[in-house]
Amino acid sequence: MPEVNDLNISAVKQSFDTALRAVSNLDELDEIRVRFAGKKGDLTLLLRSLGKLPPEQRKQAGQEVNKLRDEIENRLNEAATRLRDAENEKQEIASRIDVTLPERGRTAGAFHPVMQTMHEIANIMQGLGYSVATGPEKEEEFYNFECLNVPPWHPARDMQDTFYFPDGTLLRTHTSPVQIRAMLQYGAPLRIVCPGKVYRRDNDTTHSPMFNQMEGLLVDKNVPFSVMKGTMSEMMNAFFGRSLKYRFRASYFPFTEPSMELDIECVECSGHDEHCRVCHGTGWLEVAGMGMVHPNVIRAGKIDPDVYNGFAFGIGLDRMAMLKYGISDLRLLFDGNVSYFMSSFEGAKSC
Ligand SMILES: [Zn+2]
Asked: Could you say which architecture CATH assigns to the domain 113-344?
């Protein structure tokens, strides 16, 4: 093979072979195209050098260089096609949907356990002839305290216990103001339950500054004490799905007289486990406060307490949910992680 200046045709061919073997993508191939077939590439230099050869060598060298140029062009084009096909295939594989793969886990939507509890108890009470009533969470002192026989000196009104707004309104500390609003709006006789959020300045492992309550109110003529006891036991039995033992203890609330607290037998151990984590071995669980409505409260609802009487009760829905669904930590109820509930929540299926 003739020498063309310091560039040797076979040396160019060899370095092209080496470079082409190492190429792995179209960008690298473009660099090689510039290096060998570009305006200042090795082939152009070879062609330019032909003129400096003696005439007897020029023809043969020219044919050699042209042959090499054709070969380089063909092989560059082939490599471009091959690399482009490979890149297309790679992209196609990356974007391909494999319809034979199993679908990703889907989580069924479900009510929050507290909402579930709220609905269950409201349904039970609706079955006993009660209506569901709601009211504002931002409440006036008048409805939250005054109408409920809570005088201004009462500790519940303290700034330490209640969230006040600068204008004197407050976040309701119980759902009882709904009872007043309902009496004012509908009069007697009346049977309502008032579920909803309430707020107090409490925040520790067993208290949250926001919690869920349901109160009930029955106002009618000659309501006996036994109706209250019967209603409460009926509600608890229906909610927990079995016949429970009860204990009523005398208590005090400003808005009822007499006032009681209701204990039910421990739903975890029924009083048979002295190390029970739920009842701490007492066998009893406090679940509700109640009492015969104080005449002052009935009067605040613009109903004559000489004609009508009634009873009211309040239960903590968070606590009821925890007892029914075996939730051990109150804070879990306000945690954003739903997986805990999806695994423990009766009726929820993960599919
Ligand atoms: Zn127990």
From this structure: 2-Layer Sandwich (3.30)
